[in-house]
């Protein structure tokens, strides 16, 4: 009887130990499975994010290429046409001719402004700092909006693609102020913060509400967010006292 009990005890012990080993083994295998699955999901999300960024970058580059082409066409074709007509009409002082010259002069000015908005020559020739200061200078000439610009960052460190993206972001911010904020002034500042550049934009508009949910964001804000995301930066904004936004991007250098 003692021998039988010992045998049963041994079998129970052996069975329990086997179950314990199997349980531990199963737990380890399951944990590795979960870990591998999570890793695969993270890798998949990274690939999707990278694909979206590459797709968005390709779209933006295509848009900029088309903008450049349109700007050149406007300048070369329409601008030259206005210039030639203006020279011809200068031969006469007839009242109708004078009126026509004024209209042509206005049309030529509009064409130049369109070319500037689509692809400002200052950005390509003189760099981002001058182009941003020139935007503020042009706005101050309108007497409808006061612009203050403080650039304390060496923006020339950025390559041409990043400078163009930052320029478009500022364009969009100013456009939102003009269209929606009912503001009388705005300030634009750029500062170096160690390995990052901070762009602060504020206006004194009448918008006084919380940060809007994603489905209520306008095209302008979504466009800015997309461009900042492509620069691996952050974009934060609020309407607590007019409109205020802060953009942080890492410093990039030419290869």
Automatic annotation (TrEMBL):
Q: Does the keyword Transferase apply?
A: yes
Could you tell me which InterPro entries the record lists for this protein?
Answer: HATPase_C_sf, Sensor_HK_TwoCompSys, Sig_transdc_His_kin_sub3_dim/P
> Which is one GO molecular function term here?
protein dimerization activity
A GO CC term? membrane
Enzyme class, UniProt record, top EC level: transferase
Recite the UniProt keywords alphabetically.
ATP-binding, Coiled coil, Kinase, Membrane, Nucleotide-binding, Phosphoprotein, Transferase, Transmembrane, Transmembrane helix, Two-component regulatory system
TM region(s), chain numbering: 12-33
The residue stretches assigned to a coiled coil in this entry are 30-58
Q: Which Pfam families match?
A: HisKA_3
Q: Which residues form the Signal transduction histidine kinase subgroup 3 dimerisation and phosphoacceptor domain?
A: 66-122
Question: EC number(s) for this protein?
Answer: 2.7.13.3
Catalytic activity, as annotated = ATP + protein L-histidine = ADP + protein N-phospho-L-histidine
Q: What protein am I looking at?
A: histidine kinase
Name the source organism.
Pedobacter westerhofensis
